[in-house]
Amino acid sequence: MNYKDTFCARITEKTAVIGIVGLGYVGLPLMLRYNSLGFKVIGIDIDADKVEKLNAGKSYIEHIDAASIADACKSGFVATSDFADASRCDAIIICVPTPLNKYREPDISFVTKTTDALVPHLRAGQVLSLESTTYPGTTEEELLPRAQSTGLKAGEEIFLVYSPEREDPGNPNFETSTIPKVVGGHTQACLEAGIALYSPAINKVVPVSSTKAAEMTKLLENIHRAVNIGLVNEMKIVADRMGIDIFEVVDAAATKPFGFTPYYPGPGLGGHCIPIDPFYLTWKAREYGVNTRFIELSGEVNQAMPDYVVGKLTEGLNNRGKALKGSRVLVLGIAYKKNVDDMRESPSVRIMELVRDRGAIVAYSDPHVPAFPKMREHHFDLTSEELTAKNLASFDAVLLCTDHSRFDYDHIKAHAKLIIDSRGIYRTPADHIIKA
Predict the structure, then answer these.
(1) Average pLDDT over residues 297-320
(2) Which residues lie closer than 8 Å to 241 by C-beta, 6 or more apart?
């Protein structure tokens, strides 16, 4: 029996069942896409609360509306915490977190534990695709031996694929179907099965020669951003010492129609990829005797940005005869980027911790995050402050960290005593505004 051809035929006929493990910012949009095409989709997640909400037609991600979830449920989508349901799936797509541990080293335990939970339920004819960002070699070193421990041979009876996620929450210009999809397979047959899996859902599929090449592609994309943001963050410090507005400089440089891509400085890096991915490559590179000094240096610069912003806050308060200790500080925007509710690796949270640890009374305002969420490493019992004139004036300083469009910046400027602007919102100089 040719399992690859059978799988491809089931995809073409839309009789294949798609399993998605990890129903977060990556897995949930992917589920909706396959569901909209008429595929039966089974979602697997260890978070029972997520499973319950999804099966009730509710959403827990701001930019994914509940009506879309409800429609998916009506047309056959089911969420479960039972990994045994993976046996019903023709394709299993893994979209679980790959964070760093406390030593800033890769933590792929979510991937390995998920795979271990799937192994008893794997069967011949399935495609197993990993989308989580990871170091080159993960698919071959971690998924392959686990999958083949079942007695199934990769490339003949089971098909291993790596296809890195490329979600950009809050970006209105792109959606799951319009972002090209890189796909690498363990064998040629695996690659062909992977292309068949993603082609109905994604407008453009980009095949590469191996799972390692696909894994490295994802790292290059995000390290490119991390390094360039590190560069402009370092230039921000130099420009500040020279009395130059770095945002004006970047805007001017961006008028060059070739050879330049504008990156803007900020309070640090956030999100599930850009602050983390460089460390996946630097860690793996050491196995090959390579020191990635350039990448590591940019990581050091970006990690230092929250301290730089707090330093500007301290300086601003000192110049007004106040100490940071005992001051009331309002942080504007705690999501990692504008116009989303995503808190992963947000530099705003690190800034809040630094301000709190230095003895200040910290509060926040974020229209996308009404209450500070439960996080593995960060704890605040706070809810979002209203930005009334009276409330703004009650704080000794307002620290602009995330530039949400829903903030009324003129109103904030009119009523805040001191503004520390880390996003370049206020271009016209004012006595109570400090660029950071």
Answers:
(1) 95
(2) none
Contact 46, 81 (CB under 8 A): yes
Q: Domain check: are 63 and 205 in the same one? A: yes
The rounded distance, in Å, linking the Cα atoms of 343 and 383 is 14
Asked if 81 and 45 touch (Cβ cutoff 8 Å), the reply is yes
Shared-domain flag, residues 42 and 187: yes
Please tell me the pTM assigned to this model: 0.92
Under a CB-based contact definition with an 8 Å cutoff, are residues 78 and 43 in contact? yes
Say how far apart CA 323 and CA 320 lie, in whole Å: 9
3-state secondary structure of 260: coil
276 domain-assigned:
no
Q: Is residue 222 part of a domain?
A: no
In a domain, 320, yes or no: yes
User: Position of tokens 């229209």?
Assistant: 367
Q: Please, which contacts does 5-8 make with residues 24 or more away whose CB atoms are closer than 8 Å?
A: 6/125, 7/90, 7/91, 7/125, 7/126, 7/127, 7/159, 7/193, 7/196, 8/192, 8/193, 8/196
Using the structure block, give the residue that is written with the tokens 């809040």: 352
C-alpha 322/C-alpha 417 separation (Å) is 12
The predicted structure's pLDDT at residue 74: 96
Q: Which domain holds residue 420?
A: 304-435
Q: Which residue has the tokens 């019992």?
A: 381
Strand order in the sheet with 78-80: 78-80, 40-44, 17-21, 91-94, 126-130, 158-162, 181-185, 205-207
pLDDT at 155: 97
Cα–Cα distance for residue pair 211/94, rounded to 1 Å: 14
Residue 370: CATH number of its domain: 3.40.50.720
* pLDDT for residue 376 is more than 80: no
| Burial class for 110, CB neighbours closer than 10 Å (0-12, 13-18, 19+) | middle
Active site residue 73: no
**Residue that finishes a domain, picked among 209, 244, 262:** 209
Catalytic residue among 95, 190, 273, 401: 273
Using CA atoms, how far apart are residues 148 and 23, in angstroms rounded to an integer? 26
Cα 288-294-300 angle, rounded to 5 deg: 110
Give the residue from 157, 187, 209 where a domain finishes: 209
